[in-house]
Each structure stands twice: as structure tokens, then as C-alpha cells.
Amino acid sequence: MAEDEAGTARAADDPLAAIRAAFNVRHFAEASRLLSVTAEMQRRDPSALLLAARIAVERFDYDSAIALADEAAQRGASPASSSTVRAHALIGAGRPLDAMDSFRAVGAGGPDAREARAYLEVDRHRVAYRAWLQGLNSTYRPGEVQSVLPRPTDVEGLRQCVASRTPLDRARILSIHTWHDATVTISVGSEIRVNLELERFTRTKRDYGYREDFVRFCLDRAGLSIDDIDLVCLDRLGNEVEGVPVQPNAAHTPCDRPSTQWRLHAPFEAYVLGRWIPALAVNHHTAHVAGAFFTSPFEEAPVLVIDGGGDSPGTVTWGYGKGSAIVIFGLEQPSSALAKWWQHLTIANWRMAPFHHLDPGPGPGKVMALAAYGRVDASRNDRLLAAMRFGGQRVRIAGEGNHLSVSAWDGLLLDDTDLSDTHSSESQDWARALQEVTNDEIHECMVFLHDQVPSEVLCYSGGVALNCIATSEAMRRGPFKRIHVPPIPNDCGTALGMALYAYHVGLGQPRTPSLFSPYTGPAYSTNEIDAAVAAFAARGGFAVETFSEEEALKSRVVEILAAKDILLMWRGRSECGPRALGHRSILARPDIPDIRARLNKHKAREWYRPFAPIVLAEKAEQILSDEPAHAHYMTTSTLIREEWRSRLPGILHVDNSARPQVLTRELEPFLHDVLSRLDRLTGIPVILNTSFNLSEPIVETAEHALDTWWRLGIRHLVLHDRILVRRAA
Fold first, then answer.
1. What is the pLDDT of residues 646-701, one digit of tens each?
2. How far apart are CA 628 and CA 614, in angstroms?
3. Could you tell me which of 594, 571, 555, 621 has the C-alpha nearest to residue 688?
């Protein structure tokens, strides 16, 4: 109500300026709303009438647009302007010959006529597409999409439109997610050209919003321009229309898009970087399901998503994938709402503040590690579970940047109890209780899904899937035997999920199940790396070893690690997701007794957080207690076998667990060879791996790597085909 009153006040002060401002940033729903609250005298103003006509064109209401343009002309609007708007409405209505007549009314040689001819010649497929959109019956009853696959007619026009530009199996897709963990994915056919989180570009953790410079950067790295893009995907977390309220960050979205509440998807037309492009709005839950299934090695599998929320009510989604098809057959809002409780408790009680007002906070990952130090107390677990199911705890986050304030309210379980002293037993015991309850809740979700779709395999995603302890504990209890958790199960995976959904479901392209490579970041040329090193050379104090042969580089890396030195690795395309997987990593031997203390000092990490291992696939069964077949992305946890625990102090958590990356030659041949040689030298087929960063997002470019290397104070840096060595002080 307050926002409506503010908008009304702005419109009353300067109605046309307010309407134009909304129109110019492509927020047509807001422009239309402002227009509706202006006085009748303003509605009769020729300029206001032309604006209303333009808005009607963009919202596919062509009959109203024609009538408004005609009325504007009658009230004295420029004949050229009114005829131009009328002509565009006629084009959208599928009447191109009438549109040309309208343009000729203001002179066949004028710029408007030239624009019309170019519009009709270059974008003729849009005429048919807009007509199809206008006639598309996309009205769903709540719950309908939860029991059926997408109807073929939902995407028929979209396929025809894209096919008019390029073969469908080579379609170039730009997918944009703008909420927290904002990400851009660009694919060409089934190839992921670029998948990159905004935080790697801006250096702000879990950054959000739509940035044209970031989209242009990703396009450039993919070797494309916006003119090459055949299809755009957007998810819900921006400016909604059709009765759904505008989200707080509407200014950070490229354009309006239809609501996908209670829909798997909705075709529309997006305005991105100055171009109108056929587009698919994809439901947030659908994007998670698609990201889990289409990155899996399974031909068919049930899919479980547990997340903080989406554009349809619910935090738990039940789905199924087979071939190129996906069905969502269940969506519910359990009273426990795991993701919200982890967010609210870690912010309000453990005092782990978020990075910005849209960020769920860094606390869940840290408290998951702290839980291993706590004691199991059934009565504490029961108290927590009862509160989660029948009570509530929420937090209010206000401000920006380093000036955030956090307050808690509404049925507090722990009131304002300060658990920030992680050395205290109370802090550790409550962490253990939260973890134990989470283990049980996730297992219940898995059992329910298995009852609906009996299967040996499971795909699992959503923000809660980052809790690898709960994932693995639930799997140990059954009923599933094999699991796939993608490297980006949280919201930074929704752009990829949308792109895969659009390609396989939207465009109907077949799928070949395979091992998903997480190395989806941009590639950087030797010239770019040379330039970065040359610019950094002014600091002095280091030598550069260059290797023309990869085998020589491998040998030198093995030599450094065998000597028990720490090594920074920046090589190849960056891995997607929050966990480093060997391309933007800090590596060290795990059998060094004081290695955790040394690394914690370099990285200024909390005392209780463990480091993770990379394990040779061929030796994994000897070292890990659980079947490691799909533990490729550090998204599951396992126990280290007793005979190995004394030999691996660097990666062993207090409860004898570890979060492994089981490395195959297929996934990463360079690092696989390094680890194999280390195994032959030391008898240990394991290496400690932690992310290459220092209180910031993981490094992306060579410039980031050089700067962070210097601040970390570590001696050796692998930079693609060279090793930089700091000289002793």
C-alpha cells in the first residue's frame, strides 16, 4: 500500500517523467500501473496517450495500442510518432502490409519507413512469434503442473521461432539468474561455453543483480555477441507481472517477464542489451530440478530439491527425470523449513552476518563443521524439532555492505542467545542438535520420494544440499544406493539449470547422460596471462619458471608437493560453485602434522573448520568407508577408514569424516597424473585441497591469482604453464 501511494505521488508530481522512467528500463507493468493512477486530464494528453500505446504494444495488447495511437493523433500528436506506434502494433498483430501502409502515411523515404522495412526483413520471425504468444493459452490452475509434463503446445511457437534462426541442436542460449548468487550461463547446443557467478566478476561474495557489463563479459568469453543469441532464459527472482508483486531488486533485472508461479515455464520475449529475443521464463524449482537431473550420469532418476523458497510456494520439490523430460509431481512447504532455520539461527544466534541484505549468510557451512564438536542430546533435538515444526524464528536484515543490522523476532526458540563463542559447549551442542534434526528431516524426504518413485539412484539439489553431512547420513540409512549432487546445487546453479531445461525440454533436444565437468568458467589466453605477470612484475621479489611441456610442469608440481611445500593452483577454466575442485585451489600434502595450523594462519579461517581431500578414484575404496562412485564435487561426506586416519591428519575432521573429491582421469587428467605420481613417491594417493581465496570469492582471473598469492604469503604459484616462486625475505 505504501509503495502504491509513493508511486501515485510521483505520478502526480510529474506523471509523464515517472511513466517514461519505468518504460525506459523495460518495466512495463510498473509504467502501466503509474499510467492508471494519473488524472483523466493527463490521460488525454497526446504524449501520455502515445506512452500508453507503446506500453500496450510491449504487453501484446495490439488492439488497444492501435486505438490509443489513433486517439493521440486526433489530439495533436506528431503524425510520424503516432503512425510509428500504430505500425508496430500492426506488426505485432500479424498485419505487416497494414503496418507498411501506416508508415507510408508519413513519407516512404522517411526514417520511420526505413525502420519498418528493416524491422520486417531482419526480424520477420518475431511477427509470428508475437502472434503465437498473444494466442497462447498459458493459464494454469494451481497445482496442475505438478502432475503433468509440459504440454507440447507450450513451446511449439518457441521452437519454431528459434528454428527460423538456427538449427535447434546448435541453439545459442543466454541464461541469467539475478538474485543472490547471481550467475550467467551461455551454451551453444549441448556445450556449456561459460558458466560464471557474478561474485567472481565483482569480488563481492554471493553478489546479486543484473549487470550489463557482466553479461557482455560472459558473451565475449563465449566468443559471441548479443546478436548471436537465439534464446534467453530468466528465472523468477526479479520483476514479476500478472498479479505477482514486484520484487525488491526489480531495478536489477533486464526486463519484465511473465510469472511462473504454478508453471514449469512461460515463453515470452526478453529485451536484453538492446535486442528483443525469444525467451523462456523458468520456474525457480524447475531450474533446480533440471540442474540436478541434466548434470547427472543417470538416464532416469527421481529428483529431490530442498531450498529456501521459489516463485511457487514451497521449499521441498519432488520430481522425476527421464531422457529429455522432467515432471514435478510434488511441492510442499514443510513446517520445519530447513533452509530458513539454518539461515535465521546462524545469523541471529551464532552472529554470522550475511554479506548483503539478500544473502542467506555464510553461517550454515560453518555451523555444519562446528556440529561435529557437539554432544548428541535427544531432548535438545526434540525441543529444536518441535520449535521448527510448530514455532518460528525469523530475522530482519537492513542496510547495505558493512552496515547491515540484524534483529530477530517472532517466537524465538533461543531468544537472543549469543552462540558466537564457538569454543563453548552450548554453541557446539546447539550446532549438533541442528545438524541431527536436519539429518532426520532429509532422510524423511528421501523415504517419501522413494515410496512414490522406487529407484536405486537419486538426484538431489537446492541450497540445503550443500549440507554434505546430512546428505551422506541420510544416504547411509537408505533407501537410495547412489546419489548425484551437482557442484552447484544452490542458487548459483539455477542459470545452468534453466539453460539445460530450455535446450532439452524447451527445444526438445535429446540428452546423453555423462559425467558433468565442473570446469565451466572462462578460458584465458597465454597473452592475457603474460600481460598480468608483466604488470605484476613491478613488485619484484619473485622468479618465474616457464614450462613448454606439460610433463615437465607436472614433474615440478610433484617435486614441490613432495617437499611438503604448499602450492597455489591456477590453471584451466575455473570450477563452478562454492567449492574449489583443483583449478583454483590451495594444495598440500595431508600427512604434514601441522598443515591445518599453517593453512589456517595463511587463510585466517575459523579453528574448527576442516580441509577437504582430493582422492585418486583408483584408491578411493581403500581410504573412504562409503561407496565413492559419484563423490566428484565435494558435495558428500564420508568416514576415513581407521587404518588411514593417523596418516591423513590434514584432512581428518574431529569425527573422522571428510568431504572428498574423488578424482578420475576423465574429469581432470593433469591433476590425476600429479596425484598418481605423488602416490608412487609417498604412498599416499590423497592431497589436501582448499579454495584459493582470502576472505573473498575464489580467484577467477590471473590478476586475482597474483594479488591473492602475494597477500597469502605462500611461496609457490602455478599460473597456467609457469610457476612463480617468491624469493626468501
1. 999 999 999 999 999 999 999 999 999 999 999 999 999 999 999 999 989 999 99
2. 12
3. 594
Q: What is the pLDDT of residues 115-159, one digit of tens each?
A: 445 444 434 455 566 555 655 534 433 333 333 334 455 788 899
Ranking 12-21, 154-163, 452-461, 618-627 by mean pLDDT, the lowest is: 12-21
Contacts by 62-66, CB closer than 8 A, 24 or more apart? 62/89, 62/90, 62/92, 62/93, 62/134, 63/93, 65/89, 65/92, 66/90, 66/93
CA 396, CA 84: separation in Å to the nearest integer?
A: 49
Instruction: Judge whether 364 and 467 are in contact, CB under 8 Å.
Output: yes
- Give dist(CA 41, CA 706) in Å, integer: 63
**What is the pLDDT, as a whole number, of residue 523?**
95
DSSP for residue 419: -
- C-alpha–C-alpha distance, residues 396 and 535, integer Å: 44
Q: What is the pLDDT of residues 492-513, one digit of tens each?
A: 999 999 999 999 999 999 999 9
The predicted pLDDT at position 18 comes to: 77
Exposure string of 692-702, with b = 16+ CB inside 10 Å and e = fewer, is bbbeebbbbbb
Q: What integer pLDDT is reported at residue 238 of this predicted model?
A: 43
Q: Cite the DSSP H helix spans in 37-95.
A: 40-43, 46-58, 62-74, 79-92
Instruction: Report the C-alpha gap between 471 and 384 in whole angstroms.
Output: 20
Q: Strand, helix or coil at 104?
A: helix
Nearest to 349 by CA among 392, 389, 395, 411: 395
Task: Phi first, then psi: give them for residue 581, nearest 5 degrees.
Answer: -130, 35
Distance separating alpha carbons of residues 186 and 239, to the nearest angstrom: 22
DSSP class of 388: H
Burial of residue 442 (CB within 10 Å: 0-12, 13-18, 19+) is buried
C-alpha span between 213 and 201 (Å, rounded): 10
pLDDT of residue 250: 42
Q: CA dist 526 to 5, 196, 573, Å?
A: 57, 20, 13
| Rounded-to-integer distance, Cα 522 and Cα 242, Å | 37
